[in-house]
Amino acid sequence: RVAVDVKNPADLPKLVEGLKRLSKSDPLVQCSIEETGEHIVAGAGELHLEICLKDLEEDFMGGAQLIKSDPVVSFRETVNATSSVDVLSKSPNKHNRLYCKAEPLPEGLSEEIEAGKVTARDDPKTRGRYLADNFGMDVGDARKIWCFGPEGTGPNIVIDATKAVQYLSEIKDSVVAGFQWVTKEGVLCEENMRGVRFNVLDVVLHADAIHRGGGQIIPTARRVFYGAALTADPRLMEPIYLVEIQCPEQAVGGVYSVLNRKRGQVVEENQR
What we know:
Layout: E1 2-6, H1 12-25, E2 30-33, E3 39-42, H2 46-60, E4 66-68, E5 76-79, E6 87-90, E7 97-104, H3 109-114, H4 124-135, H5 139-142, E8 145-149, E9 156-160, H6 168-184, E10 196-204, H7 214-230, E11 234-237, H8 252-261
Helix pairs in contact: 1-2, 6-7
């Protein structure tokens, strides 16, 4: 990822239009705007980014000069184990309590969610049976998935594991908002989370609706999810670029030396 900006503020409309055209010309490039207002260009590697930025500057912006940051790798955050304790968070007014635990998603489920095989739009009963049969999840839990995140489609889930809690449906949207916030900006370095399951174990709510509004519940949910992730052996996930290289036999040594310099691992080698 590289942050780009224009040297001359008058060229900003050119940058916005240039990024749109760059996205259309190369489907592998991802262009986005951070909350800080920075324009981010993400590509497959340093060379790919270099070519994209050259195209952006010379072809799509008519030679307008750019300021480019150093390239940064996008990480993901995940957890390695189930939370060591039940995590409790109290609302700012001390009248509401949330209890939660975090654990890793079953192996392979994150990939299926990202591929669109398991989505928030699926029928809960059908999805519950599929998750129970293929990933060994409890059917009851699998049917009580509140949402996926971040953006409502990501590879993290929050499950209602409570028993007979009053007014729970009223705070569901606030808990989901806190969950989306947490999965978008993880606890370690504010990167997206991946492969984490949060179980809401118990909820104690004030009887008066005015004391359990979004302003009380959203920050409480955010804190309890962060606490659950921190007690579940959190770690970073580094992206790996899967590539197939075809070359003549005499170039094999050079390919290996380049891959070793970049910490590459050869999974398979075939002669044709």
